[in-house]
Write a structure and sequence with these properties.
There is one protein chain. Helix content is about 45%, strand content about 15%. By secondary structure, it is α/β, with parallel strands linked by helices. The chain has helices at about 30-45, 65-75, 95-105, 125-130, 140-155, 180-185, 200-210, 235-240, 245-255, 265-270, 275-285, 295-310, 325-335; strands at about 10, 10-20, 50, 80-90, 110-115, 170-175, 190, 225-230, 290-295, 315. The protein has an 8-stranded parallel beta barrel with strand order 2-3-4-5-6-7-8-10, surrounded by 8 helices. The protein has one domain (about 10-235, about 290-335): TIM Barrel.
Length: about 350
Amino acid sequence: MSTDKVGRFRGVPLSILDLAPLTEGSTASETFKNSTDLAQHAENWGYHRYWLAEHHNMPGIASSATSVVIGHIAGATKKIRVGAGGIMLPNHAALVIAEQFGTLEAMYPGRIDLGLGRAPGTDSPASHALRRTLNMGPDDFPLQVEELEDYFAGNSRVRAIPGEGSDIPLWFLGSSGFSAKLAALKGRPFAFASHFSPRYTIPALNVYRDNFKPSEKMDKPHALVCLNVIAADTDEEAQFISTSLKLQFWGLRRGKPSQLKPPISQEELENLWSPYERQVVEASVDPFSTIIGSPETVKRELKRFLDETHADELMINSVIYDHKARLRSYEIVQELMDK
């Protein structure tokens, strides 16, 4: 598929969220090599965006220096939009983010997205280590956003060079209704993290759409929704490789995050966790926003998801241990794109 045309599923653009997984026994160098390979395939397949997310103190995620990785991926591709999904703004001075993304936009004009989140993207100890001051937190997010906007607009006493005058799309990311309403009131696009917060998806989208106010940037709401998709040539194979995602959630819920583990049999999985732990994990890997299966299953469930969310754009997160299997999963989704 040519990169001149954005790939769509039933008229809706498809994009990729890459959590830059550190698989068990691998190195960060291998992770970034795999991410580059995936991004280049994604561009050729017609995916619209390729986003990376800021996480810290997470043994299984290598995208902590998010701006650096974005630059690396943008430099290895030619046309696909590359961005942050997202930058956790309370962790940073707004000036630094304006300069970093102004620099990226200067290097790769018209291809950079800046998604903003208000959570720390980490645990409490790492959050404390990141903060310039503990007086700044998620509740100050709207003020930080205004400060960032002022740097880009050139309305601040301190000038962001590069950054000032950059027309970088600002997205608001959320897993609840707070950022949905802020995005709506500012007339900005909104991205919802349904891949780990399925139960709040519809309420947050309703908040965004019901409160949207047109702005200079947008005259109508644009909602991107991220979901998990693990696709393989058969339902049985997809269910098997999906156990890596379930093991990841299991580790997170137990407070023991780790590198992404290889898949195991369902029987082995049942022997690992308690009935309560299984219930907790299954609440995260909810069928509403986690699609696991063959091409036929994925096509049916993607349609169902679109019918329920009316998303303007879908972002696919595929947490898969084996790189070739991960490529194949995204390729299967690509094969469903409108030709």
